[in-house]
Amino acid sequence: MNNDPEKIEASSMSMRDVFASRAMTGLVSGIAMAPNGTSELADLAEKRGIAPHEVVDVSAYRYADAMLKARMSTIGGEVETKVSDEQLAKMLAGLDGVTPGPWTFDGSIYNDMGAGIRAIPSDRDIAQLWKSGTVAIDAAHIARCDPDTLRSLIVELQARRSDTR
């Protein structure tokens, strides 16, 4: 990744960066100058023992984080996730070598014993479930979770998370 501020492309900015830059514009435009030529920003930085730009940097990202949180709540998303980035990476890696999809379940229960899930390209059973009260529901659910579908979901979720950080 290019860290030269003059050469960073807009496409490499996350949504958090965009929100922070907008917040920073507002923060900087609202800085009042005192009659003696100093600014409220310089005074605040001096009180905190930090450089003036650090006040703006930290504040801008705090505003960005608040905007992302508000955005997630208005679109029905959750701010806290139940699946960690590490779990997603393990799930993605675990798909390597699994029988490719799509998978299917035709609703058949074999000899009143259970159900089979088939891989469509190879037309062979890849899993069998013993009969239980929910065997048809379970088999249909497993068939929907073929590796190509899961890979697409995981990659899309990872991309969305990187956009909001």
| Run of helices and strands | HHHHEEEHH
Q: How much beta, percentage-wise?
A: 5-15%
Contiguous uncertain segments of 5+ residues? none
Supply Rg.
26 Å
Structural class of the helix and strand makeup? mainly alpha
Biggest beta sheet summary: 3 strands, antiparallel
- Major sheet strand order: 1-2-3
The 3D shape can be described as rod-shaped
How many separate domains make up the residues? 2
Give the helix level as a range of percent: 40-55%
- Number of strand segments: 3
Q: How widely separated are the two ends?
A: 16 Å
Round the mean pLDDT to the nearest integer and report it. Answer: 76
Number of helices: 6
Q: What does this entry look like structurally?
A:
This protein has two domains: 65 residues, no CATH class; 79 residues, no CATH class. Helices cover 51% and strands 9% of the residues. A three-stranded antiparallel sheet has the order 1-2-3. Strand 2 and strand 3 form a beta hairpin. The radius of gyration is 26 Å and the shape is rod-shaped. The mean pLDDT is 76.
